[in-house]
From TrEMBL:
Pathway info: Nucleotide-sugar biosynthesis; UDP-alpha-D-glucuronate biosynthesis; UDP-alpha-D-glucuronate from UDP-alpha-D-glucose: step 1/1
UDP-glucose/GDP-mannose dehydrogenase C-terminal domain segment(s): 328-452
Protein name (Swiss-Prot/TrEMBL): UDP-glucose 6-dehydrogenase
GO cellular component: nucleus
Domain of life, per lineage: Eukaryota
Keyword terms of this UniProt record: NAD, Oxidoreductase
Keyword Signal listed: no
InterPro entries recorded: 6-PGluconate_DH-like_C_sf, NAD(P)-bd_dom_sf, UDP-Glc/GDP-Man, UDP-Glc/GDP-Man_DH_C, UDP-Glc/GDP-Man_DH_C_sf, UDP-Glc/GDP-Man_DH_dimer, UDP-Glc/GDP-Man_DH_N, UDPglc_DH_euk
Lineage: Eukaryota, Viridiplantae, Streptophyta, Embryophyta, Tracheophyta
Family affiliation: Belongs to the UDP-glucose/GDP-mannose dehydrogenase family.
Enzyme active site: 272
Amino acid sequence: MVKICCLGAGYVGGPTMAVIALKCPDIEVVVVDIFEPRIIAWNSDHLPIYEPGLDDVVKQCRGKNLFFSKDVEKHVAEADIVFVSVNTPTKTQGLGAGKAADLAYWESAARMIADVSRTDKIVVEKSTVPVKTAEAIEKILTHNSKGINFQILSNPEFLAEGTAIQDLFNPDRVLIGGRETPEGKKAIQALKDVYAHWVPVERIICTNLWSAELSKLAANAFLAQRISSVNAMSALCEATGADVSQVSHAIGKDTRIGPKFLNASVGFGGSCFQKDILNLVYICECNGLPEVATYWKQVVQVNEYQKTRFVNRMVSSMFNTVSGKKIAILGFAFKKDTGDTRETPAIGVCQGLLGDKAILSIYDPQVSQEQIQRDLSMHKSELDRPPRLQPASPTAMKQVTCVWDAYEAAKGAHGICILTEWDEFKTLDYQKIYDDMQKPAFVFDGRNVVDVDKLRQIGFIVYTIGKPLDAWLKDMPAVA
Ligand code: NAI
């Protein structure tokens, strides 16, 4: 029986390995993590991450051929294939701080693998890493190997949180990069055999190591760039009376452009897009390509601009001050169907409103009060972060409450601000909400989920990103 061990039981390691175990009953999969509470949660009825369909997959194979353990060294030593799916955040200190990927977790994982291995192994980069990382990892492994043969493969993950199980069951492609030597090709084939249990072989792309590593950064840069492009267009729509949804629909019909990832919003979030673009920017700078670096940096800067623009629009619409006014924040996760708040635009928007002394009542169906409080008071190492979107002070945090119901959040509020596109926000009883609010009652929709005409008929003053402004908002233009 082939044995797989995965280092890192996070948003990628957990779901990816659960699906491999489900689809490959002849393979034993052990997911290990140095953070014990996560392992305890994976072995309980309350998995550490929320992802539609994940519970079912885990229940079907946990205890059969899927195991979660904190015994990292034992399972690495026993494995034929070791996936490394540890976190690779942006460096906060030292050379490249604020841009470069912090590979400390990766390096310590590689040293540990070299240390405990007694048999040949395939080591798979699952984490997103800078191009050429495999070379460094190879050096660490071979210089500490005691004669053991390690083959390094790059197998970046393209799943999206919220649809991870669907994406893993039916991936657009699986990418495997490896050395072009006979041993390298053999390792590629071994990993290909794993995926071929359920992925059609024509969707398994094999490349050299550097192409695979760079393709992941390139994919995230292209996806984020589409969002920043449509968001930049949304500002122009508001200034001219065009409707960004109509523009997106019209341009998306062009098969060269395509319809996906053209929804204007308050901005992208999640642990990957910003981190990976900043990493790309750093790599370009290190390779003497400042023009290419500037091009990609702008994608992140437009994202910051969009958040600031949104906050400014809210404040200016509400008579240029939100001081002492209750604002209901609906949604805090960076997208629907996840409880993940890493880099969620809600952080910047809430911090901006708190900076203007608003009183926030926050509701998200999947995010805990502790998480929200941690996020709002956290210092971040973001690139060129505007001074307005800075961490909330302890005094400001007293103005934040978290509630478990959208109606409760909106009770007595001056405005509602939608920051995550949870389906339930489309079907709320907005008449009931309106009746319980201060007047004039405002809705600021950062995800374009509400029926604008219906809400305006009820009496709300509605702002949705990139849509024609009503008379009220036209009189109060927001400049970021
Ligand atoms: P995460 O933070 O949820 O999980 C990483 C886990 O690795 C943590 O639980 C941590 O305790 C553990 N860890 C760190 N060092 C370890 C070690 N030496 N041994 C064992 N465990 C160790 O991170 P996430 O979101 O799963 O991301 C992992 C990687 O995958 C990152 O490089 C990320 O960029 C990439 N990625 C993430 C995607 C996402 O949607 N979250 C999608 C595609 C790639």
